[in-house]
UniProtKB/TrEMBL annotation:
<dbReference type="GO" id="GO:0005829">
    <property type="term" value="C:cytosol"/>
</dbReference>
<dbReference type="InterPro" id="IPR037407">
    <property type="entry name" value="MLP_fam"/>
</dbReference>
<protein>
    <submittedName>
        <fullName>Antibiotic synthesis protein MbtH</fullName>
    </submittedName>
</protein>
<dbReference type="InterPro" id="IPR038020">
    <property type="entry name" value="MbtH-like_sf"/>
</dbReference>
<dbReference type="Pfam" id="PF03621">
    <property type="entry name" value="MbtH"/>
</dbReference>
<dbReference type="GO" id="GO:0019290">
    <property type="term" value="P:siderophore biosynthetic process"/>
</dbReference>
<feature type="domain" description="MbtH-like">
    <location>
        <begin position="6"/>
        <end position="56"/>
    </location>
</feature>
<dbReference type="InterPro" id="IPR005153">
    <property type="entry name" value="MbtH-like_dom"/>
</dbReference>
C-alpha cells in the first residue's frame, strides 16, 4: 500500500475543488488523480482561493439526499 502525504499549508501548492453525487465538496492536490466518486468543478487554485470558493459556494453542507428528504422533494 502506497501512502501519499501532502503539505496543505504550502502557499505554492495548487488544488482542485471536487464535488460528489451528494453535492459535497473537497479540495484535492492538483497533481493527483481524482478519486472515484468525485468530479472536478473546474476550480484549480491555491488553497486560500479554493477555501474562498467553498465558503461562497457550499452554503448548505447537508448531503443532497438529506436536503431532498427534508424539503419534501
Amino acid at each position: 500500500m502506497r501512502t501519499v502525504t501532502f503539505d496543505f499549508e504550502n502557499d505554492e501548492a495548487r488544488f482542485k475543488v471536487l464535488i460528489n453525487d451528494e453535492e459535497q465538496y473537497s479540495i484535492w492536490p492538483a497533481d493527483l488523480a481524482v478519486p472515484g466518486g468525485w468530479t472536478e468543478t473546474g476550480v484549480n487554485a491555491s488553497k486560500a482561493e479554493c477555501d474562498a470558493y467553498l465558503e461562497e459556494t457550499w452554503t448548505d453542507m447537508r448531503p443532497k439526499s438529506l436536503r431532498l428528504a427534508l424539503d419534501g422533494e
